[in-house]
Amino acid sequence: MTDAPAPTPARRESPARRERTPTGILVRTPYPLATIAIALGTVIVITIVGFVLGDVDFGLAHALNSLHTGALGAVTTAVYHVISPAPAIGITVVVTGVLWAVHRDIRPAAAFAGTVAITWVPSDLVKELVQRPRPDTALLPHPFATQPDPSYPSGHTVFIVAIVIALTWVLRDTRWHTLAVTLGTVVVVVVVLSLTIDAVHYPTDTVASVVWALAVAPAARLVWVDWAMPRIPVLRRPALTARRTARH
After folding, report:
1. Interatomic CA distance for residues 246 and 241, integer angstroms
2. Torsional sign, CA 186, 38, 130, 56
3. Among residues 79, 86, 99, which one has the least CA distance to residue 187?
4. Per-residue pLDDT tens for 147-204?
């Protein structure tokens, strides 16, 4: 009776192959057409709704603005200024740099920055198209000085939801993912409440912005990470793999 053949050892992937395996935000979208269709449909609906809203929720905006006193008012005002456009760009640049340094790979960092930008910037085009006025400061109990640009949707809200979504995707395959989702949700709620208590936006502005980011961010990631980045030489492969190739 012959001995049974020894089991074949499990095949191990080479380091180079492991480096090429997409993880986190680099994982390809499984349903690209559906992702694009959902984003386009959502943008169209949000735009149409913006034309008919008027001041339908001014009463709620007025009630929330009555809370803008003391320490709470100071906090909500600070939140508004911290994520205004210039600081928001700075935050994105800093987070992108940190991701690049931690991963030692430009691709996750570039994927993060591109997803945030492509989700955020187009919302301003809809804002200019809809031209919904901000809540009338003359009728508010605690009026807040704002820029005279339109109100719908809220760029502040789109930005913060986009950056939270992109960061949770970057951390998807790590132990930090659950914490990022939890803290990110808290941050979004704080921003939405702050903007509505300041009454720089109607509540419906912020709701539309959350929906916008949730629908548009996956399409932004698809367009930038799956379609555009592979066509940019420096973003085609991990930096480590590129350096090894150069040495050979």
Report:
1. 9
2. negative
3. 79
4. 678 999 999 999 999 999 999 999 998 999 999 999 999 999 999 999 999 999 999 9
Number of Cβ within 10 Å of residue 16's Cβ equals 13
Distances (CA, A) of 73 to 16, 20, 60, 156, 193: 53, 49, 17, 17, 11
Q: Radius of gyration over alpha carbons of the chain, in Å?
A: 22
Of 108, 80, 143, nearest to 224 by C-alpha is: 108
Tokens of 39: 């984003």
Tokens at 182, concatenated: 């939890």
Neighbours of 93 (CB within 10 A): 11
Element (H, E) at 158: helix 155-170
